[in-house]
Specification:
The chain has 654 residues and is of the alpha+beta class. The chain is 34% helix and 15% strand. It is built from 19 helices and 28 strands. The strands form ten sheets. It has a six-stranded mixed sheet with strand order 2-6-7-5-4-3, sandwiched between helices. A six-stranded mixed sheet has the order 15-19-20-18-17-16. A two-stranded antiparallel sheet has the order 1-13.
């Protein structure tokens, strides 16, 4: 039973300047009533897949063969239409593999929402059916469902969004049992200037589903991301027991959390566990279920400050999940996390393509690894990176944030969210982080021994990268950016100091603190301009509208650096100008030789001269304004590969 239905028309407020202004118009597909009536056989009861106080959900199939789920609001609930619009905005501006895809809506008068159809129904439906049937979801499948759900919640919480209605009925399953969170009608967004992890108090009626509502929220009106953590703890127990939360209601008058905690403390967990899961017969499964049950009890603790954050919950679930020899590694790269998969011809299979979990490090462990933060590798706007060596022998780079603030938390959470899911041979690997309740925020990456591209291009470094090495660096960097853009991500801080090089000069792109998800069905995202001045797209800087073409601009600056070995800002006369401005003037005035690093052989090797000329013209196109004149990163990559092969010359580019 849901509470507070009359309050659902609340509007979402922006949690930060990086969210979307209210005057942004979404380009939704508008479905006609007759089209949806035909798809559902005039909303035949046979096609009904569920109903509640607000709506009824129907299965449908469009003329093009696309299977859909239609959320049809009840006639007397038209006041929820504003909430209906809000759900559109959340779901479409937050693309993620584990959030339901929304395809469009009907006109305002009809109030229907069209979602993707997930053939395996709800988690609650599966658990209810299993009570009467002999078959059951295997434990590892259940654990994967928990991990998928946790990933979605980490993503939402990093954007300041509290789902407020995490239930097994709102966890949908596709044909492969991949879990997707649905139903954002009760979701809340933290107000502007309030940390994503802050606790606020609400004076209005409590909303949510009975049994899943956090007691702290129910009793004191404490609104926090930790409300979702409590609800998720309930779902974990449901996965372990195959019994929905209402099964436990009224048992001795105790709360759900008390019942669960007592069974675990009294070492009576077997009374809680579905015996069909192999708890008694499989040592590995038993060990894993115990770990998940203990995690669930931590999620159910009161007061809410005692609970872990969802990113900690996710890390624990990933770390306890057993891997079997016969089991295929689960692919979980960020390309699979977007709403609509795009072609990804740039992705190569490597050991990094398999699902990886990250570790939570304690501060003492990282102090020891870094020798008390003794060796600095570089400093940025938010923190300093130190060299370290873990006890297991791995060399690491540890990013230590300067201070604990709302901005720091946002950067910290954003990097965890991105890097814990991103896996590509040309992206830096993420090993883990400190807990959110630690005294310091630290991120741990693989150590890339060759340093940054900017250091190699520095005239005083003594390093003279050959032209073919530079071209390969450009190609590998472009490959990583194509991967990101195919995955719906804008890096927003592409620059030479964020391009790390191994000893073999293989590229590892780093620093995802400013990165943003970018749905493929919008042309831009409105946000306060961030990044490094000489690399920032002028269109983005002036309009506040970032797009994947903003990364193209920054990459164009990097191309000019590879050609010239110059800094991103150069002195022209008595003033400093951006390298992009300087280089474009040289090209327009047919003085390219004044831009090119003389050590590259531009004047002595015709083949190199032709390649550099072609790359210079490509860079020129990348930095053009308006952004519509620029190529996509995929086109840039194709051109660079053609230049390397000698099949794409200057004349083809112009």
């Amino acid at each position: 039973m849901r509470l507070g239905c009359d309050l659902l028309q609340h509007c979402f407020t922006s949690s930060s300047s990086d969210t979307f202004p209210k005057d942004e118009k979404l380009k939704w597909q508008i479905f006609h009533y007759n089209e949806l009536a035909k798809a559902t056989n005039n909303f035949d009861r046979c096609n009904c897949r569920g109903w509640g106080d607000l709506d009824t959900v129907y299965y449908g199939k469009l003329d093009n063969g696309l299977e859909i789920a239609i959320q049809r609001f009840h006639e007397e609930k038209r006041q929820t239409f504003q909430q209906f619009i809000n759900e559109n905005m959340i779901l479409n501006y937050l693309p993620h593999k584990n959030l339901v895809t929304i395809y469009g809506r009907t006109s305002d008068e009809e109030s229907m929402l069209v979602h993707e159809y997930l053939s395996n129904g709800t988690l609650a439906g599966h658990l209810q059916c299993e009570i009467a049937e002999s078959s059951t979801l295997p434990w590892l499948t259940r654990l994967d469902i928990a991990i998928d759900t946790a990933k979605a919640l980490v993503y939402l919480h990093s954007h300041g969004i509290i789902h407020s209605d995490i239930t097994s009925s709102n966890i949908l399953l596709d044909k492969n049992f991949c879990a997707k969170i649905s139903n954002f009608l009760l979701s809340r967004k933290h107000p502007e200037g309030v940390s994503a992890n802050a606790t606020t108090h609400v004076a209005s009626d409590i909303i949510g589903t009975c049994g899943y509502i956090d007691p702290e929220y129910q009793q004191h009106g404490c609104l926090s991301v930790q409300n979702d953590v409590y609800s998720f703890g309930v779902v974990l127990i449901e996965l372990i027991s195959s019994k929905l939360v209402n099964y436990w209601e009224g048992s001795d008058g105790d709360s759900f959390a008390t019942i669960v905690s007592r069974k675990i403390q009294n070492q009576s967990l077997e009374e809680l566990v579905d015996p069909r899961l192999g708890f008694q017969s499989d040592h590995i499964i038993k060990k894993t279920i115990i770990a998940v049950a203990e995690l669930a009890t931590r999620c159910l603790q009161c007061p809410l400050e005692l609970r872990p954050y969802m990113v900690q919950v996710l890390g624990t679930l990933q770390s306890v999940r057993p891997k079997k020899d016969k089991e295929k590694p689960k692919k979980d790269s960020i390309e699979d996390l977007t709403l609509n998969k795009k072609d990804d011809s740039t992705k190569k299979k490597t050991s990094n393509d398999t699902d990886q979990s990250f570790k939570f490090f304690n501060l003492a462990e990282l102090k020891e690894a870094t020798g008390g933060f003794n060796t600095s590798l570089g400093e940025g706007g938010y923190g300093t990176v130190y060299y370290g060596k873990l006890r297991d022998g791995r060399k690491v780079a540890v990013k230590r944030f300067h201070e604990k603030s709302d901005k720091t938390v946002k950067q910290f959470m954003n990097e965890i969210n991105m890097l814990s899911l991103l896996q590509h041979q040309n992206l830096v690997s993420f090993y883990g982080c400190t807990h959110l309740d630690s005294n310091e925020y630290l991120l741990v990456y693989e150590y890339v021994s060759g340093g940054t591209l900017s250091k190699h291009l520095d005239a005083f470094s003594g390093s003279k990268l050959a032209w073919h090495t530079r071209l390969n660096i450009a190609i590998e960097t472009a490959t990583s950016l194509v991967f990101l853009h195919n995955s719906g991500i804008i890096h927003r801080d592409v620059k030479a100091s964020n391009i790390l090089l191994e000893e073999s000069f293989r590229v590892k792109v780093a620093d995802f603190g400013l990165s943003r998800y970018f749905p493929d069905f919008v042309t831009h995202v409105s946000t306060v301009p961030v990044g490094t001045h000489a690399y920032i797209d002028p269109d983005y800087y002036q309009s506040g509208r970032v797009s994947d073409k903003s990364d193209v601009y920054s990459f164009g600056v990097v191309l000019f650096q590879l050609i010239s070995s110059k800094c991103p800002s150069v002195k022209e006369g008595n003033e400093f100008v951006t390298l992009a401005h300087f280089a474009m003037n040289k090209i327009i005035n047919k003085a390219l030789e004044e831009l090119v690093d003389p050590s590259l052989g531009f004047d002595s090797d015709k083949n190199i001269m032709e390649m550099i000329t072609a790359v210079a013209e490509l860079a020129f196109q990348c930095v053009q304004c308006p952004k519509e004149l620029r190529p996509s990163m995929k086109q840039v990559l194709e051109i660079l590969k053609g230049i390397r092969k000698g099949t794409w010359g200057f004349n083809q580019i112009t």
